[in-house]
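stage 2 :: seqdesign
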């Protein structure tokens, strides 16, 4: 647990440092990918890149192949730590998917695609990138402000424990709440039972 915590802390520090270097604002969702020492930064629904038409074509191609492979978009983002802008936009146009499409076009085949995101990757992007890693046969690495994900052949190194582990405080509170409710229900029942018995 300590090791995980330290890794996370380190990832968060690295991501913050990169954000400072690139000069991006803290609370807007961005993903970036470096090609030939140049960093390409994308926002959700971004269409500003000079290669936008190629990026959109790649996204459309991936979408078709993913659908065939059984991918269903997960639009339930309420549990995730996303910015309003990203929540509002369709999951398909999240910045990490756009950065990935660009990486697939711009990086030579066989080279792993490394994406960094300043916010947590959402459940849908996590699932989509697993599909894409298998479809394109590429290693995809996503570092978000929470942890490191290495996608290979349809699997991620985090083994999908990321959402659970990241929500440890809220999960603990929920479990504690449930226990307290049970104890109080049990107590009120015993009090009532003993009252009616007497
Ligand atoms: Zn997403
Ligand atoms: Zn993962």
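stage 2 :: out
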């Amino acid at each position: 647990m300590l090791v995980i915590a330290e890794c996370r802390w380190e990832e968060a520090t690295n991501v913050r440092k990169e954000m400072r270097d690139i000069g991006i604002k803290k609370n807007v969702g961005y993903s970036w990918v470096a090609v030939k020492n140049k960093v390409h930064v994308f926002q959700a629904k971004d269409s500003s890149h000079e290669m936008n038409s190629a990026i959109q074509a790649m996204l459309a191609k991936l979408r078709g192949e993913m659908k065939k492979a059984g991918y269903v978009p997960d639009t339930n983002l309420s549990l995730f730590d996303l910015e309003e802008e990203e929540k509002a936009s369709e999951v398909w146009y999240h910045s990490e998917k756009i950065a990935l499409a660009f990486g697939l076009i711009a990086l030579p085949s066989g080279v792993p695609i490394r994406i960094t995101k300043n916010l947590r990757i959402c459940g849908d992007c996590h699932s989509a990138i697993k599909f894409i890693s298998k479809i394109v046969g590429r290693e995809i690495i996503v570092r978000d402000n929470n942890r490191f994900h290495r996608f290979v052949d349809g699997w991620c190194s985090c083994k999908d424990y990321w959402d659970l582990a990241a929500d440890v405080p809220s999960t603990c509170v929920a479990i504690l709440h449930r226990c307290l409710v049970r104890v109080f229900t049990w107590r009120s029942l015993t009090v009532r039972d003993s009252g009616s018995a007497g």
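stage 3 :: structure notes
- Helices lie at 2-22, 52-68, 84-88, 95-106, 123-136, 162-166, 168-197.
- The longest strand covers residues 30-35.
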